[in-house]
Each structure stands twice: as C-alpha cells, then as structure tokens.
Amino acid sequence: MKNLFVILFCVCGTVLHAQIGIGTTSPTSTLDIRGSLALNYRSFTASTTAASTDNNLLFTGTSAATLTLPDATGCAGRTYTIKNVSTTSPLPVLTVSTTSSQTIDGGSSWLLNDTKEVLTVISDGSNWNVISSGVSKTRNNYVLVQSVSDFPAPVSGIITLAAGTTYEINGTIYLTSKINLNGCYLVGMDANNDKLIYTPGSGELFTGTKGGTVKTLTLAAITTGAKLFNLDMGATENLVFRDNVVASCKDVGLVKGGYIVFFSVVNYSGNINGITYQDVSNLLLDNTAWFATNSNTYEKLVGSFTMIEKLGGFSNAVSTNSAVGLDVSGVTTISDAATFKNTAMMGTGTRVNGSFSGKWEVECPGITTEKDDVATGNLYLTSTASTTFSGTNVPTKVLGTTTSAGLFRVSTSGNNRLIYDGIKTRRFSVVASVSVTSTSANKYFSFYIYKNGVKLPESEQAMRLSTGVDKGSLTITCTVQLTTNDYIEVWAANTSDNSSMTVETMNIAIK
C-alpha cells in the first residue's frame, strides 16, 4: 500500500509540471491552444464590479459610471479588458476604480473619456498594472477597394458611390460598369500601382451629373468606343482631378458644366483623343503634362466660361500624330478673364488652334505673347486733305485719310484715331510725327495729342512756316493712361490766324 502511494504521488507530480496542449499532441508551451479562444464578454450600462467570470467588459451606458476592480491580492495574473463604447453625446465618462486602497499603475483610478477608448489591466497580486491603453478608432465613411466587389453594387450598369464616402483604391481594378462619383473622394496611395481600368467598348468610366475628387490614380479607358469622362454636371458641382496618370485612353472624353473644374499635376500619355471642357464656370488647369505619345487634339475648350486659368506644365504636339496642343476655336464667351501662362508649347504639330480674344492673357514659351501689356497700334496718312480752322488758336482734328498697321488690342474708327480695346487700364507711350505745308507765310501752328476729344497739354509742339512753300516737320511724344475704348487723335491749331494747312505726312504709334 505504501509503494502504491509513492507511485501515485510521483505520477501526479509529473502531470502537474507537464505542458498542456489543446488541439495538439505536441504542446510547446505550458498551455498550447491550436484553435480559437473564447473569453467571457459582458456589456453594462451602469456602475458595476468586475467579477471573476469576466474578461472583456464593454460600457454602453448613457451617463457616467464606475467599474470597480476586485481585490488584486486574490487574483494575481488575472486580466481585464475594458472599453467605453457608448454612443451618447457628449460621451459619458467611465471610471475604473480599485478596492482596498489599491492602485492602477500607481493611481487610484483610470478614466475612459474618449470614444472607443480601451484599457487592459493585470493583477500582480498586490495592485493592478496597465498592459495597454488607448483609443481604438477606425475611419468613418471609408472603404478600402481591393476588388470590384468592394464598390457599391451597380444599378443599370452604374456604380453610384455613397455620398460623403472616401474610396481608397488598392491595386489594379478592372471595371465593366460606369462610376457616378456622387461628390465622393476616390483616391489611391501610389499612382503607379493603384489603377482603375475601364474595359467595355462603349460608354465611359465617369458618368452622370455629379462631381467629386479623383486623386493619385492611373486611369484608362482602353477599348475603342470608350471614354474616361462623360460628365454633364450641375452649376454648383465641383470636380477635382489631381496627381493622376491618364494613359492609353481611346478618348479622354468630355467634362461639361460645373462650378469649379480643377485638373492639377496630371500626366497624359498614349491617349488617342484628348479632353474637351465645355461650359465650365471656373476652369483651372495647372501643371498638366501632355507627352508626344498623345494624338489628335489634347485639350479643347468649347462654349461659355466665367474664368479660365491654364498654368505651367507642357504640351508636346507632334505633327505625325495630327496633334493639336490647345484648341480655343470653340470658345464663345468668357465673362471675366482667362490666363494662359508658363506652359511650354512644343513640338512640330499645331500648338494652338483658334485665336485668343481680348479676355486672355497669354505668355508661354513657344507661342506669341498676347496680353494687354503688349497692346500696340500704328496708323499713317495715305491721302492728304486741307485742315481748316474756325478761328485763331482754335484746335481742330487733323484731316486726311489714314491706314492702320500692327494693331494688337488696338483698333481704329474712321481716320486719325487709335482706340484701346484691352481690359486692363495701362499707360502708353505715344509718338506722332507730322510734316506740314501752308499757303501763307509766317504762320505758327501748334500740334497736340487729344484723348477722348480732350487736349493733353503736355503733348503740345509748335512750328513756324516762314514762306508759303515751306514744309515743316515735328515729333509729338507723351505718355497717356488709357482704359477700354479710350482713343487718341492728333489735333492742331493755327496760332496766327484762321488760315488752313495741309498735313503731308503723319504717323502715330502707341505702345
């Protein structure tokens, strides 16, 4: 009997010090579980005490409460995970407290006062120690798209994104359905690897009447008959398209309407047909890059605009691809202003099709500068006429037939008149030269520049003709400030009497 007791004692001692395996016959730890682990879960709405049967405790109450931990001396090694998941606003505070003057990481209590804040504690046999704490948060209104199934289900071939939601594209997604942006944010993290490829032979990737934001993606509509864009947006919609690569599209397509359309830092390559912007209130095109691998018209503007801004980037139009860098021939009205600056216009193709109206300021490498600051005009006398005076020292407009030359944002109306057509008020240098004859001797004549029928006294120049066969000449110079539709003319006065004179030659230039 004594021997049996010794044997049983040895066996029990061996078992008590063995490794235990669940789901395995070869445990590698004191407790080795090869499978799921179920720990007790309890939610509570009011003050309570953590029990020995608890592990995960979730507070869902609507007002402040206290969770009291048990005596740490009786449960060494025990852990509790506590989380404040209340949805009440403002968030009710959950206080985690101890008993018997024990501490939590040296303090008497711990507050969970942030949404989804979590605390994990362990008993060391005397007090409670924090294993981890923090706020467990995930993004709201956010979808990670790694396959087509992560998008909303298409209806009639159109995927309508959920309003107010950010969709992050991760990887290459091939689409057979169109996308209605619906004001959403469609974004990638790496345009080289995050791609949306539209594969059907008709239709378009982006469709509908709503704008949105598309950022840091590669986008393509790769089949003949398909487009990247076919948008007809409402007057208050905005479209932001930036940091993207548009490649290998058969047709980049149409963006029509909208309040603000903003394309920035976009790389276009290998596209057969470019993009048309039509009837956009405010069109902003910044640092777009059109490589020589594109064909046909790159960017085309059609219809009415409030404001157009195209800045930076480049356009390399190659004649073998029938390429046109920018087509403005379809612009009917610009109500405010248009700016086209610092875009390198290159290549053997057509750099610009159409002409720029006076609303434009154009200053780009590779094309002619067109802006109010370089407005200029010239006219000269082609047929003489006698100029008569109604009295002594009474100025009158110099008569004769004039022809204009070199007009830019300057026009003429009748003879001896240059009209400023620009929008910006600016100062001009005026230079006029005349040669004069008179039928009488000892006559004194004064010449002036008149602005809008009013003499500019600082422009006065005088001459004397000693005999009836004398021909005198002089030059008039001055500076004048002109605004839209202001005009200048050359006037003269006989300061001797009212006898006539004939201007034989006259040339007027402003710049």
From TrEMBL:
<feature type="signal peptide">
    <location>
        <begin position="1"/>
        <end position="18"/>
    </location>
</feature>
<protein>
    <submittedName>
        <fullName>Uncharacterized protein</fullName>
    </submittedName>
</protein>
<keyword id="KW-0732">Signal</keyword>
